[in-house]
């Protein structure tokens, strides 16, 4: 079977059986973007925009000890596969987590996929990470493997896609896949927030697999992500710099405060139990699109009186993320560009965040 070949790391044959999971309908949410109409298509011609995420890569961790091994390194519980409704087989599940260093700062942000186990197959997880740290993540895993019965290897045969609805009315519906016997596919909800739609792992063209799917512009995906305040990758979460709770890890379902010990847990748990997080990553809107590189990461964000309110983290055009003191976000803010010009900046609180933060 194609599924068994994939779990063992072999390239599955094209004549194998399709491996796919259907998705439960998500709660109805309003998205502020119509990805398909911006590309000259009417909302009626396409239901979903599919974005190929070339900057994301996959690592496969498999073996009898893979679950306890990962639990000792990740901030969250594992997305263990569960029984599908009315079926004897199991379905893949996803989760979000960070790897931390011993000082409690983020090293790598990952989306985890817990894959179903066959009677003759070992527990297997796929870790989606920033492709620029693929080798570093593998070295990190091997360093801590010690005598665990675990195999760590890349998974280049699958590509990562993001699937977002083209119209707000579609956000409450499930993504349906074409019935293609020759493809190997994993489809699951994005575990961070319903606003980020779905994740699709496939060997084939994602927009051809999704019923009503169209290929989306990658910049539209990143603009949407920044508008929703969702950090992703090393530019938004600099390794060894970003703190998980300041990066809204708890809001994105990425940390468990009841699980066993993991590397970097002490600072994270202490910050949580103190209940005081003075700075957070907020989505920001600039007064106009700026040339690429005109605002360097770490540039100070200032109040009207010139006091420091935080630092700009990353962005695309006129949207981005900034690490700001929560009490400063309601007042006028500005940032200085590399040409010494001042640009107004507005921070917002995403409406999917807990009510207590608004």
UniProtKB/TrEMBL annotation:
| Domain named CAF17 C-terminal: residues | 278-354
Give the GO cellular component terms, alphabetically.
Answer: mitochondrial matrix
- The protein depicted here goes by the name Iron-sulfur cluster assembly factor IBA57, mitochondrial
Identify the domain of life: Eukaryota
Q: Which family does it belong to?
A: Belongs to the GcvT family. CAF17/IBA57 subfamily.
**Subcellular location(s) per record:** Mitochondrion
Q: Which InterPro entries match?
A: CAF17_C (IPR057460), TrmE/GcvT-like (IPR027266), YgfZ/GCV_T_CS (IPR017703), YgfZ/GcvT (IPR045179)
Q: Which UniProt keywords apply?
A: Heme biosynthesis, Mitochondrion, Transit peptide
Q: Carries keyword Mitochondrion?
A: yes
Describe its function. Answer: Mitochondrial protein involved in the maturation of mitochondrial [4Fe-4S]-proteins in the late stage of the iron-sulfur cluster assembly pathway. Operates in cooperation with ISCA2 in the maturation of [4Fe-4S] proteins.
What lineage, starting at the top, does this entry show? Eukaryota, Metazoa, Chordata, Craniata, Vertebrata
Biological processes, Gene Ontology terms: heme biosynthetic process; iron-sulfur cluster assembly
Query: PANTHER family, from UniProt?
Result: TRANSFERASE CAF17, MITOCHONDRIAL-RELATED
